[in-house]
Automatic annotation (TrEMBL):
Molecular function in Gene Ontology: glutamate-1-semialdehyde 2,1-aminomutase activity; pyridoxal phosphate binding; transaminase activity
Protein's name in the database: Glutamate-1-semialdehyde 2,1-aminomutase
PANTHER family associated with the record: GLUTAMATE-1-SEMIALDEHYDE 2,1-AMINOMUTASE (PTHR43713), GLUTAMATE-1-SEMIALDEHYDE 2,1-AMINOMUTASE 1, CHLOROPLASTIC-RELATED (PTHR43713:SF3)
EC number: 5.4.3.8
Keyword Manganese: no
Classification via InterPro entries: 4pyrrol_synth_GluAld_NH2Trfase, Aminotrans_3, Aminotrans_3_PPA_site, PyrdxlP-dep_Trfase, PyrdxlP-dep_Trfase_major, PyrdxlP-dep_Trfase_small
GO CC terms: cytoplasm
TM regions (residue ranges): none
């Protein structure tokens, strides 16, 4: 019988010491009205909690674990690295090796800098774009999440959408003023803005496949429009591929849709589950960064040898066996087709959206193209689906505004088990429709 007794006690204690008991808001399960399992270990496609519940994991640490948890080769490389010391704050050979690998996957990243989180990558990319252009204004899209730096916490997705607070207190008015927001996938709005004030805009930052309002692919022509107007107005185009890099394709969304951005941000998979992220792009722009140029950016733990080892091991495996990208995509296709078939069988209106190995089940009857579409989905049905799955060993993101992910450890037996539980969940929802 599914129960979370130990986790519930642990959560009560955690709340005395940490805001809401967690170190990142969506983990609290507040949005689904329950308490989170406390995790004790993970291996392959599975994650385990302190009450000894076992789950097939589709959160995968919010994306990084494309090789599954505790990949033996990654773990072995970490075990080898740790005795050599955990941080030096000095250059290592590993960093250049990782830079070469990143460039092999994404050739637009001619010069890169390593940082510790996706937030740092996007925040720093913005500074570089502003320093390079000498302009202050930036454009972001409603429902895209680019981490929690001030300039980007405006009409943001992910946890902010989950909790209905798209703009955070504590962000100075003067900072937010320089962030212009437009609806995702609205090429006309982009063109109109650039016709009016394009020459004053430093950067467009975009999730080229949105993942933080659920999985929302770019409409044909949207990314092309961004490329065209930024080029015409001397604006820097930043692709935030922290989530979709290595998920949309081996070379991210930029390869899948054949658009070359000026700067790219990577996180999650690039660190193989350790705190590591990257931003990079054209030599001309990136060499404006100190000490090559005047734009300041730094970090005590940047390029940390343990994090870089984890990233290198992960990217080496992906490079050695590029069929991994097709394997995870095929598994995700099988899963999503299964969801669609089952939902149709029970007459539950859902739209399953997928790009590569990321997906979201939207409880709605029309395609989700932007944040307003995502926000109009049926929340109660999502919650029923989520809770039935959690209590039957299937672990999805606890919010309708998130993407789920598949790893190479999700084989046909995992897919079958997942679909069997989805069958029960859709049936349960259909019973409420009668
Ligand atoms: N950009 C995108 C597209 C993300 O999905 C995230 C995190 N989910 C971030 C930036 C921020 O990354 P981090 O949580 O590592 O700061």
């Amino acid at each position: 019988m599914f129960q979370l007794g130990k986790s519930e006690k642990a959560f009560e204690e955690a709340k005395r010491y940490m805001p809401g008991g967690v170190n990142s808001p969506v983990r609290s399960y507040r949005s689904v009205g329950s308490n989170p399992p406390f995790i004790s270990s993970a291996s392959g496609s599975r994650i385990y909690d302190i009450d000894n519940n076992e789950y097939i994991d589709y959160v995968l640490s919010w994306g990084p674990m494309i090789l599954g948890h505790a990949n033996p080769e990654v773990i072995a490389s970490l075990q080898e690295a740790i005795p050599r010391g955990t941080s030096y704050g000095a250059p290592t050979l590993l960093e250049t090796e990782l830079a070469k690998k990143v460039q092999a996957f994404m050739p637009s990243m001619e010069v890169i800098r390593l940082v510790n989180s996706g937030t740092e990558a996007t925040m720093s990319a913005l500074r570089v774009a502003r320093g390079y252009t000498g302009r202050d204004r930036i454009v972001k899209f409603v429902g895209c999440y680019h981490g929690h730096s001030d300039a980007l916490l405006v009409k943001a997705g992910s946890g902010l959408a989950t909790f209905g607070v798209p703009d955070s207190p504590g962000v100075p008015q003067g900072v937010a003023e320089n962030t212009i927001t437009l609806p995702y996938n609205d090429s006309d709005a982009v063109r109109k803005l650039f016709d009016d004030i394009g020459d004053t805009i430093a950067a467009i930052i975009v999730e080229p496949v949105a993942g933080n309002m659920g999985c929302v692919p770019p409409e044909p022509g949207f990314l092309e429009t961004l490329r065209e107007v930024t080029k015409a107005h001397g604006t820097v185009l930043i692709f935030d591929e922290v989530m979709c890099g290595f998920r949309a394709s081996s070379g991210g969304a930029q390869k899948r849709y054949n658009i070359k951005p000026d700067l790219t941000c990577l996180g999650k998979i690039v660190g193989g589950g350790m705190p590591l992220a990257v931003f990079g792009g054209s030599r001309e722009i990136m060499n404006q960064i100190a000490p090559a140029g005047p734009i300041y950016q730094a970090g005590t733990l940047s390029g940390n040898p343990i994090a870089v080892t984890s990233g290198l091991a992960t990217l080496s495996i992906l490079q050695r066996d590029p069929t991994i990208f097709k394997q995870v995509e095929d598994a995700t296709i099988a899963l999503c087709e299964g969801f669609e078939r089952l939902a149709a069988q029970y007459n539950v209106p859902v739209v399953v959206q997928r790009v590569g190995s990321m997906f979201t089940i939207f409880f709605t009857d029309k395609p989700v193209k932007n944040f307003d579409d995502a926000a109009s989905c049926n929340e109660e049905q999502f919650k029923m689906f989520f809770h039935h799955n959690l209590s039957h060993g299937i672990y999805y993101a606890p919010s309708p505004y998130e993407s789920n992910f598949v790893s190479i450890c999700h084989k046909s037996s995992e897919i079958e088990r997942t679909l069997a539980v989805a069958d029960e969940a859709f049936k349960k929802i259909s019973d409420t429709l009668l």
